[in-house]
Amino acid sequence: MIAETGLAALWLAASLSLLQLVLGFVPAISKSGSGPIRAVAVLQGVLTLFSFAMLLLVFATTDLSVSLVAENSHSAKPWLYKIAGTWGNHEGSMLLWVTVLGVSGAALAIFSRRLEERTFIAALAAQGALALGFFIFLLFASNPFARLNPPAFEGRGLNPILQDPGLAFHPPTLYLGYVGLSVAFSLAVGALITGKVDRELARAMRPWVLGAWIFLTLGITAGSYWAYYDLGWGGWWFWDPVENASLMPWLAATALLHSLNVLAARDSLRAWTVMLAMIAFSMSMVGTFLVRSGVLTSVHAFAVDPKRGVFLLILLAFYVGAALLLFALRSGKLSEGPEFELLSREAALVGNNLLLSVILGVVFIGTLYPLFVEALTGAKLSVGAPYFNAVVGPIALALMALITIGPLLNWRQDSGERLKRLAIPALLGVTAFVVLLIAVPQDGLLAKLGFGFAVALFPASLLPLLGRKLRRTPLTTYAMVLAHFGVATAVAGMSISSLTTSETLIAAKPGEIVSVGRWSIRFDSIRPVVGPNWTALEATLYATRGGAIETLKPQARFYTDPPTETTQSAILTTLNGQLYTVVGQQVGDRWQLRLWWKPMVTLIWLGGFLIAIGGALALIGRAWRGWRRGSVR
Amino acid sequence: MSSWLRFAPIFLLLLIVAAMLWRLANPPDTTVHSQMIGKPVPQFALAAAVPGVAGLSSAQLADGKPKLIHFFASWCVPCIGEAPVLDQLKKQGVQIDGIAIRDRPDELAQFLARNGDPFDRIGSDPESKTQLAFGSSGVPETFLVDGRGVIRLQHIGAIEPGEVPAITAAVEQAR
Lengths: 633, 175
Known about the structure:
The structure holds two protein chains of two kinds.
Chain A: H1 2-25, H2 27-30, H3 35-60, H4 67-72, H5 79-84, H6 90-111, H7 117-141, H8 165-194, H9 199-230, H10 241-266, H11 270-293, H12 306-330, H13 345-377, H14 385-405, H15 423-439, H16 445-462, H17 475-500, E1 502-508, E2 513-516, E3 519-530, E4 534-544, E5 550-552, E6 555-559, E7 564-568, E8 570-574, E9 577-587, E10 590-599, H18 602-632
Antiparallel strand pairs in A: 1-10, 2-3, 3-4, 4-5, 4-6, 6-7, 8-9, 9-10
Helix pairs in contact in A: 1-3, 1-7, 3-6, 6-7, 6-8, 7-8, 7-12, 8-9, 8-11, 9-10, 9-18, 10-11, 10-13, 11-12, 13-14, 14-16, 15-16, 16-17, 17-18
Chain B: H1 3-25, E1 45-46, E2 56-57, E3 67-72, H2 77-91, E4 96-101, H3 105-115, E5 122-125, H4 129-134, E6 141-145, E7 151-156, H5 164-173
Parallel strand pairs in B: 3-4, 4-5
Antiparallel strand pairs in B: 1-2, 3-6, 6-7
């Protein structure tokens, strides 16, 4: 019954999304006021959420008469993975996607009261149109509630790589970010329809973009750390197509966040901001398509069905095409807004937008290039880290320079007076670069430059606070400072770890002593251990670099349902880096050990986290300001 | 902004959608095919992988007789299953040379004792350099090299018993 109730809720929600679309786009009906459309959007969101809760329930109780549960779950699985397994498969994950879409629409209906009424209704209609397409996809091509008759005796189990707390957090946060951007898309479509692209729109759109961007930042950061410790390859970013699929919406959303500030403060960059808002969610849809259709070869091996790929491609082409067509027809009527000088806050933010867009273009081309080449010439090639690092690196450095300068400039025009404050940070940065140039003999000019820029940005990011009354400075300024400080932190981590990581790959006998970096590691023993649904061979390593002796226990695990071997790395985090150990295959009486010493690598994720916290501060600051203004009125 | 520029993103979208459709209709082939087929074997000189068996070098291959070059290893599980098929090929008069990948002499000697030794020569490729030069990315893989030392065929994965006639026919053709 639970599955049928969930399915019924899904059908109801789908019909409500159709109603939402009709109520919004048929002007004769919408003239009578916005009453029903808000209620419809809210109800649609509630029903989708209910449907998702029903799926959670059948997974929690391991109802093996539901075919999705039988194929992806197992009664002997720990409860956390039974729950998280709900979205560890295609249908459940698409239902989560649609749930976020529905709930975002409901939230838009409840919270956005500031916006001009007609734009708002058109935006809700656009949100309904988006939801309708994906409901149809779920109901006709990916029904998560399909029954299995007769029920299975036991489930097939979840891929062991996914049996990790990472699965509980990474996909939901990423989806909140991906799909949260749909609100910006819908608002942009609404504003293009009514022609009202102005400060009001920017202010209405900003909290949604900010919210989605925070989750996207967290999702990417968490995903990067998950891949780092779970896969046992020791890397934190592989420029894999699926990673790129999450990076592209983030780049667009970051650009959008900054151009929204220009639009809100100065009423400039109208057409550009609207375009970015549409691109950001389009990138989310492209990402979803790439991941779900399997058109690109990736380490993320998802179950693939070409028919679903075609369906998603049609949805993508329709929505993105319609939005771009609307832009082509309507954007000519938008005036450009007030002008600004070359040395001004606006100019720096335009620079930021251009550079972020170029990076987005570079990642997009690099991800799809192999596909185009093969389609046209039949030749096979792959584009990897050498291309991305070499092309994205220098642009990212230019972006770092802009982050250093931009916040010190005034709106409209600036004398450049405050730029003199950058003398000390610049000196520090150059010194750090020169020291690295001399101290680290191997190449890696980009990483050395990156560290120099990061060292300069650490103090420079704090400069906007200089000479201000700290208690009266708005929270949003602190937010910017913290996020930019986070960028410096992450870039410092990337540069130092890429320059100074040491690696040892060895087949060692128990009792042998192996060294990596300044660590000396004794391979003590290897013995079997048993977990809830796996057995493992666990190595015991004693590591020291002169001081205390630390114990690490990496495992080679064997799961029974489905039968799979995985490596479970053991990581020791110290103040200045991480010792990363993996135990691999047995060769006679020797065992393969992979050991890495990665100085400062934790700064990468700390930086990502700081950036997200900065975003959260900005959101709180804006809400606080809005609330105070509201209560004064 | 001129009006055609405003429509440019739509054309770009159509282009991308067309490429995606093409890909959905032609699913990617994830096996890595060697670019070396039809070309002379790369230069290499490998030491003997097991004491008492001859090593292998590229100079020995252009001796007028076609032969199979088999990439394998003692740590490779599919190679164990494939061993009887190689013996069968050997009995039908096909000459087979082996290249052992990332292997150790004692392990390899045990492997040959257990699973049979159809090889005339076995070179040791401890860092997969020769394997990469052949355009091979895994074990087991088998290449057919003709009498002039030109690579004629690549077989990825273990040779199945049913594929033996096709392989012997290809060897005959290369004579």
